[in-house]
Specification:
Strand order of the largest sheet: 1-4-3-2
Distance between the termini: 18 Å
Shape: flat
Oligomer: single chain
Order of helices and strands: EHEEEHHH
Helix content: 40-55%
Largest sheet: 4 strands, mixed
Radius of gyration: 15 Å
Number of helices: 4
Length: about 120
């Protein structure tokens, strides 16, 4: 489960508090459109705190390719390593997690569904 925080300062303060309380926290991960930290709750559920870093232009491009990405996912129920329309947006190098394109696609789908619609 992911929780949105206001900014980097808020996220890093939470990281420090979690670490001081004995939680193991993964250092910030940069997905270009947002940055996140990960940790596990006492029951072992993986949780995420994230803040947005996308520019207005990136949000616009994501909104342009989002419907095609969602249609492809709805049809196959699998993220594509090269979602339709994504290359047209010229964001592939910035928005994909370089070693994990499928995970990158999932994050973009989640971002499109939740964050960019606010």
């Amino acid at each position: 489960m992911a929780f949105k925080v206001a900014d980097e300062k808020t996220m890093m303060q939470a990281k420090e508090k979690l670490e001081n309380a004995g939680f193991e926290v993964v250092d910030p991960t940069n997905y270009h459109i947002f940055r996140s930290i990960y940790f596990r709750d006492p029951d072992g559920h993986r949780l995420e705190l994230a803040y947005d870093t996308a520019t207005a232009e990136e949000i616009k491009k994501l909104n342009e390719v989002g419907p095609e990405m969602m249609a492809a996912w709805a049809k196959s129920r699998k993220p594509s390593s090269t979602p339709p329309g994504f290359m047209k947006a010229k964001l592939v190098n910035k928005l994909y997690i370089s070693s994990y394109p499928i995970l990158g696609t999932l994050y973009l789908i989640i971002y499109y569904l939740i964050v960019s619609k606010q």
